[in-house]
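Data availability (excerpt). The following record was deposited with the supplementary files.
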Amino acid sequence: MNVFASVDMEGITGLVDRQFVTPGERFYQRGQELMTNEVNHVAEAAFAHGCTNFIANDSHGKMNNILIEKLHHRVQLISGEVKPYSMMQGVDESFDQVFFIGYHARASMPGVMSHTMIFGVRNMWLNNELIGELGLNAFLAGYYDVPVTLVAGDEGACKEAEALLPNVVTAPVKTAQSRSSALCLSLEESKQLLQLKTEEALLKKNHSPLKLKGAPLLHIEFANYGQAEWAALMPGASIESGTTVAFQAKDIKEAYQAMLVMTELAMQTTFC
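Predicted structure:
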């Protein structure tokens, strides 16, 4: 049993604002410890229930947050950037299941530090289906016929997963009180929940990959027109209306990389 885990940071228990997820901020080192711990809890349970190969892809920020020196000794780590497929770097048809750990709700939705890739994105669609990072990543896993079987994160992310992914197992480790506060499970409670839900995901038999119908049409709505202008500089992209940029892709892999380029370009916008 081969497991690929995409590990974000905003959905880890106890992490409630940018001080925990931003290098140089007051609580960032604590955030790294807690993030690494949650990967270890999931991996420990996975190895105990049939997993033989577990690869974790650090999927937050500069993607070098997980502390390899404190990581479970059997977990292999994909760390650093630039990655051609970002949060899903390394996934392919050799995997049996995909786990999302530390995930958050999409932009414009309630949830702890909710966003989609960058804070300049308001909404994102694939073939008119409103999605966030979770959905986009699940569709890329589906390209390889690999189902997303476990989603751990805040309650908003878990609800988003349940609406999109039939039979997915979710592990809500905190519940938003606002975008920067949460009711968090204790470390022991979150460990127990993560390990229980990991076992359930691995033993469940009716998972199915999330598949796109037809060539994907990507739309990204940005927060301001300057961001849309920058994003539309990518060949094949155009401003469709307002601050929404469209891109017709040949497959989900091309759509995924188009999203990466468009959001990177959008971040060049200044506000002075």
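Summary of structural features: The mean pLDDT is 97.
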